[in-house]
């Protein structure tokens, strides 16, 4: 998709772009926030056991684990 510089467009072109965007947004299905929050919470809780941000990285799978110490003599 090409990059459009908004400064180069006429007011009519800008209004047409905004109108097309509004037409797309009107077609979207809207949900209640309370329903969305419940679904997100259920999704997170169902995958909590495999989430490394919650569970942490095991020592043997940690790519950032120090391989060996550095000794300065």
UniProtKB/TrEMBL annotation:
<keyword id="KW-0807">Transducer</keyword>
<keyword id="KW-0488">Methylation</keyword>
<dbReference type="InterPro" id="IPR001770">
    <property type="entry name" value="G-protein_gamma"/>
</dbReference>
<comment type="similarity">
    <text>Belongs to the G protein gamma family.</text>
</comment>
<protein>
    <recommendedName>
        <fullName>Guanine nucleotide-binding protein subunit gamma</fullName>
    </recommendedName>
</protein>
<comment type="subunit">
    <text>G proteins are composed of 3 units; alpha, beta and gamma.</text>
</comment>
<dbReference type="GO" id="GO:0031681">
    <property type="term" value="F:G-protein beta-subunit binding"/>
</dbReference>
<dbReference type="InterPro" id="IPR015898">
    <property type="entry name" value="G-protein_gamma-like_dom"/>
</dbReference>
<keyword id="KW-0472">Membrane</keyword>
<feature type="domain" description="G protein gamma">
    <location>
        <begin position="5"/>
        <end position="73"/>
    </location>
</feature>
<keyword id="KW-0449">Lipoprotein</keyword>
<dbReference type="Pfam" id="PF00631">
    <property type="entry name" value="G-gamma"/>
</dbReference>
<dbReference type="InterPro" id="IPR036284">
    <property type="entry name" value="GGL_sf"/>
</dbReference>
<dbReference type="GO" id="GO:0007186">
    <property type="term" value="P:G protein-coupled receptor signaling pathway"/>
</dbReference>
<dbReference type="GO" id="GO:0005834">
    <property type="term" value="C:heterotrimeric G-protein complex"/>
</dbReference>
<comment type="function">
    <text>Guanine nucleotide-binding proteins (G proteins) are involved as a modulator or transducer in various transmembrane signaling systems. The beta and gamma chains are required for the GTPase activity, for replacement of GDP by GTP, and for G protein-effector interaction.</text>
</comment>
<keyword id="KW-1003">Cell membrane</keyword>
<keyword id="KW-0636">Prenylation</keyword>
